[in-house]
Input
Amino acid sequence: MSRTGDSQRSVEARQPAGDRPGHLGFIMDGNGRWAQQRQLPRTDGHAEGAEALRRVLRLAREQEIAEVTCFALSTENSEQRPAEELEFLYELLADHLEQEREEMERLQICFRAIGRLQELPRRLIDAIEKAQSETSEHQGLVFRLAVNYGGRAEMADAFCSAGAGDRSLIGAQKESALAAQLYDPAMPDLDLLVRTGGEMRLSNFLLWHSSYAELYFTPVLWPDFAAADFTAALEEYSRRSRRFGSVSSTTSGGDA
Ligand code: IPE
Ligand code: IPE
Ligand code: MG
Output
């Protein structure tokens, strides 16, 4: 399994899509609308969203997907959502990590969190650190949760730490130096990015790692995202032709 985020390694790892993505990302959107449709508080939508997350991780494991990264809370959400909703989300995430201990053992999930974690409440930081340390040796599926995460913040921080002014670096070395400073340098590029909830935008998710991701947008709200929707996304991915800037083998022509 490729665990490297080094951009040179990413270049080497580039392959045609094949059957299934190695690294699958989810922008888990639509919880609020799911609740609204039922005249429930938005927070009920988030609680139901946690069920969808459980379901998706089981499906990913069954499909032998190597790595899954899910967007739980953006830096913009942290700045702009009402305090009560944020507090609910922090508690929900901490509870979820505690309740999923057995499941993470059973599925051999290796958990990691990415984002400005230091700004989160102490209880959530503790739950994250505990889950990371308890699951670090698990070999089944790398599951990353992006919490208080922003793609621009990640790159801006990495740019400063990488010594942006180092002029001795040439070509791909510059990208490698920056990639080494991202939140989790072991995280590979995304192969498939799924966004639920109908919006067709990235909303600041994994800007570095999605440069060549296949994008899949579905109107299905995250709490409703079911096995059939998961399968439909993977089937669509298997039909995509990934070229990474080259010419397609069917259109390249030539003498052969
Ligand atoms: C996604 O669902 C979860 C978070 C951003 C925390 P939303 O809360 O954005 O749900 P909608 O988009 O309002 O339906
Ligand atoms: C993106 O959803 C963030 C997460 C799913 C965690 P938002 O609901 O915050 O995105 P916008 O505001 O519609 O772009
Ligand atoms: Mg939303």
About this structure: The beta strands are 23-27, 67-71, 109-114, 141-146, 192-195, 214-217. Residues 20-238 form a domain with the Undecaprenyl pyrophosphate synthetase fold (CATH 3.40.1180.10). The pocket of magnesium ion (ligand 3) is lined by residues 29, 197 (CB under 6 Å).
